[in-house]
Every structure is written in C-alpha cells, then in structure tokens.
Amino acid sequence: MSVEHEIENLLHEQRRFAPSKDFVASAVAKPELYEKAKADRLEFWADQARKLHWHKPFTQTLDWSDAPFAKWFHDGELNVSYNCIDRHVEAGWGKRVALFFEGEPGDRKVYTYLDLLKEVKKAANVLIKLGIEPGDRVAIYMPMIPEAIIAMQAVARVGAVHSVVFGGFSADSLASRIQDAGAKLVITADGGYRKGKASALKPAVDEALANGNCPSVENVLVVKRCGNEVDWDKNRDLWWEEEMAVADAEHVAQGFNAEHPLFILYTSGTTGKPKGILHTTGGYLTQASYTHKNVFDLHEGQDVYWCTADIGWITGHSYVAYGPLANGATQVIYEGTPDSPDWGRWWDIVQKYSVTILYTAPTAIRSFMKLGRTVVSHYDLSSIRVLGSVGEPINPEAWMWYREVIGSNNAPIVDTWWQTETGAIMISPLPGITQAKPGSAQVPLPGIEIKILDDDGHPVDKGHGGLLAITEPWPSMLRGIWGDPERFKETYWSKFEGIYFAGDGAKFDEDGDIWLLGRVDDVMNVSGHRLSTAEIESALVSHAYVAEAAVVGAKDETTGQAVVAFVILKRSALDGLGSEADTSKILREHVAKEIGPIAKPRTIFVVAELPKTRSGKIMRRLLRDVAEDRPIGDVTTLADTSVMDTISGRMSQGASD
Ligand code: WTA
Question: Domains, the chain, ranges and CATH?
C-alpha cells in the first residue's frame, strides 16, 4: 500500500468519541477558552501568565519587534522554582504529595510539596556554594530519580541554566553538549537501575571530562543511587548527599526577568551537530502550566498524574519537571523500563498509585499492543480517566487499543503535537470539548495559530496537505539556538517569511482536523525520539572501515521508524573483515558508543555505491524505497541509473538483529 493511499484511508476515519456528560460537566477547559483566545490572543495569554506568581508584574505581553527573537512578558520578574513549589506550600498545600517515586528495584519514596521545598532550597545552597551564578550552565546527566527533578528545580531557583543530557547518551555526546553550553558543573549519579541491573553513569562523565576535554567544568556532583564503585577525582567530585547534609536550609527565591534563560535542550537537526534549543522563564512556564492543566483536565488535589517520559527529553521538562509542579499536581515518576521485572510493571504502578492521567508515547502503546490484552487484564486500571499521547503520529489501531484496553473504553485520549522547539503542546483535542477522532491530533489549542502551507507558502484548504507552520508567536517558543542565532533563523524562519516552519508534513481532513504525517526533512523519529540522519552518518564515517554512509528512516511496526544505514567500506578495510554480519555488528556498536544505543541502526547494508544526483546529493527517497521493501521510484535524475539495481539486488542480504 502506498503512503498516499494509507493517508487517504486515514482521512476517511469515521469514528468519533464524544466526552461523557459527567466529564463535560466538571471539565477544566470550557469552550469559552477558544472564544477568549480568538477575541484577543495576547490578552488571553496575559491572563494565563497572571495565574503565575510574579515578583514584579509585567505590563507588556509580547515584544515581537526583533522577530524571530520574541520577548514575552519581558518587563516582569518571576522565579520558576517559587512558582512550582513555594507558592503551593504558602497556600497551605505543603502536605500534598508532589512526587510518588517508584524505583525499578521496587523501592518507593514520597515527597510532599513541603519535602520538595526543603530539598530544593538545600540544593540551591549547594549550587551557590559551588560558585554557580545566574546565567551559568549546569549539565544534568541522571537517571529518573527525584534528585534529578530537585536538581533541575534548584538550578532554576538560582537563575542558572540547565542542560539535561539523556542518561542513555554516550560519553562523546555528553562531552559535546557540555562543551557547546560551556557547563561549569555536572550533576550526575553513580548509576541508575535499568532492566534489573545497576547501570553506571559516572564512568561516562569521567570519560567525557578526561584529558581536559571539557575545561569549563569545575565540579561534578554525584548522587549515590546504586552504590556501585566509581572512580573519584578529589579535586573535582563531590557526593550530593554529603553536600546536602551540610547545606543551609533557608533560601529565598529571587525574581528573574521573564526572558532570563531557563534551560538548553539539545535536539537533532538536519545537519550533523545537535542544536541547543533555548527556553526562557515567563512564557515557557505560562504555556507549560496552561497546557498541562487544560489538556489533561487536571484537578489538583484529586488527580494522580503520570508522564512516562524521561527528563532527558522535552516532555520530561514541560510535563514532569515544570508544568505539573507549577499546577500543584501529584505525580508519579518511575526510574526503570516497562518490562522490568515483566511487562506488567506500568500497570502495576497505575493500580498501586491509582493513576488517573497517563501520558505516554505511541511506541510504548504499540509494544503493549503486540503482547495482547492478557498482561494488562491482571491489573485494575479503572482509576484512569484521561490518556495522552506524544512523540509521533499514533495510528488509529493503537489509538483504539489505548482507549479500549487502557482507558476502559471511556477515558478521552489527547493526541498532543508539539516539539522541543515549541516548548509546550500546540495541537491537541481538549478532553471535555473535542469529539475525539482516532489518529488525528485535531485542532490548535486556544491561543495557537497554525496553518498548513503548500510549497509556495499558500494556505491549503480542507482536504489538502502541505507543510505545518505556526503563524503567530507563542509564549513557550524557543528563543534561539544556543550560540548560533543565524542557524536559528535559517532552520525555522527562512522557508516562509515571518512564519515558523516545524519540519512536519500535515493534512486537513474534510472537517478541518489536522493529521500529522511525519517529518519532511532528514530527521527520523525512532520511538518518539528525534535522530538526525546526518548525525548517524557522521558517526558511521568516523569508523576506520567506512568510506561513505547514508542513513534513512524506514517504517517500523513498533518504533514508528527505524534507522537503516547504507555504507560503503574502504578498500583497505575489506581484506581484514569477517562476514557482513560481523561488520554490521561492529558498526552498530560503534554508533552506540558515539551517540547512544538509541541511534543504533536496525539494519546496515554494505553497498558498493550510493544513489546520487548529478550534483552529488544522495537520493534518500530511493534508499527509503529499498529500506521499506517497495518498488524503487523514479531514478531518472540519478547520475548513474544502474546503481539502484545493484543496491536493491542486495536487499535480502542485509544484516540485522
Ligand atoms: C513528532 C516531542 C505526530 C513531530 C514533544 C515533531 C508528533 C517531533 C506528535 C518533535 C504527535 C510529536 N503526532 N507527530 N502527537 N508529537 N511529534 O522535539 O514530528 O522530541 O516535529 O518533541 O515529534 O519531537 P521532539
């Protein structure tokens, strides 16, 4: 079935699921939200911002005079951590649970808002003692444990800027991110539990910092999680627990300008180097909290919310570390993998904590779907009343399974489209308002202006597809790429004058609902994580065997897309090599070491040539045809049209595991 054909089928989706009467009656988001935002968009956002605590109120909502560099609420001052913690304690909610932590081995820990406040204040004082000042960068490389969130909150509290690096990334990836941000401090742990084992983290930090590789780093603060042995540099390393034990208990949060930087988060782009996406405070927290409350229908004090994302991704920032805390929510965080000790783990957690709102990724849903309903049927999931999806398009089949099996055929599903760059949710149903449609993210949220444009920048009508664009600035928009304003303009703002181009294809159906069709650039989406083809190609050619490499994303039933690589080996390497399977294994391990296991190609084809145009551009479209086992498309623009015959002839011999 061709892709076009599949999309046509999707668009004929007839099923509709209206929220129940009870749900509508008590829903947080009412239809007036759309009306208010429509009547005066900026005033609507100012209203949302006023729900935060401002040390100094703002008088101007948006300054767009230096577009595309936005300033939101920029004469106001606030403290993000004060908004996430102190104000709830001051309002008398100190005893409310903020975090239910579930460790993979089964250990549990509960933090009330008051507990969290005490910890974050001490951690802020530890940072100050280590010389961290407002604007300084702090790298965080940690497992999903409460200290990770405490660290992020403490960094924000003192006005420093965190750069969280996903714990699954390699020492090399960590080093390049530390260098790019010029981080002064690294906060890490000895290890974390994954799949029943302690998995070390500190050695990767040691390797990243070895030989003066990251000269900006003065200290490494290490949380003791697993008790595994670690190397120690007495002049540099400090135990978190020891520093916290002697830290001052009091810390008064000061206000920072609304445009003060909050964090950098690196994400893959179309060229080799990851981009440091920069977010600031006032606008970011406004939209993270507004969306968290309205999209998930959060009733604080009643709901138990669980987002399964790791803090290494944007979802773990906006919908674990910031949005829920800003709203005074009670949330679950879980350290490990869904299959540890068995595939019932998540459902056991839902049952144990009576989770009411669950936010996860289609790739996880599809993994469970493959296992069938039996695993899930052993648990009581009746507490669930809202389900969320993020990271990639959710196919209608997985959507229906999610609804029927996890949501007891009753809980509304919110399919939320957004990006690291957008900072918060942009397109999503609102659970008490929208008639849900399986597979579609449906409508822009109140306050968000989206269009689908054709290649010339003309808006397309209902029933047509094109490029997804955001036509008006929004509060949690990225403020730039760290250290590279030109790349920021070029990447997002040059395709269409004055309009943000998201890199995704999309289509309106006849009702005007939006269907996301995946990336239109050379960025892949593997298990909801963005990986750039260029990044993996450069990792491959950094191996001594490889002369040239081309990487494409191929459709994969579970992970959405899978990494498929085509490599040309160096002549000098050919003699010394074993079988193709060995070569493939070596190269896959090499990519894991260079970037992280997540980037390992599923399949590597060793080829003699790559299909190129006369101007030397690799024609990925054709490689994608090979990778997805379809007839090869139009080859007339190839410099050498016979290349594809040779490559596709080799298709069946690819090595994978
Ligand atoms: C994709 C994750 C379809 C999209 C929050 C986007 C989605 C990229 C959806 C951003 C969705 C995210 N439906 N596609 N609901 N959510 N995407 O930066 O291609 O890791 O551009 O942010 O994921 O990935 P990122």
Answer: 4-492 (3.40.50.12780), 523-652 (3.30.300.30)
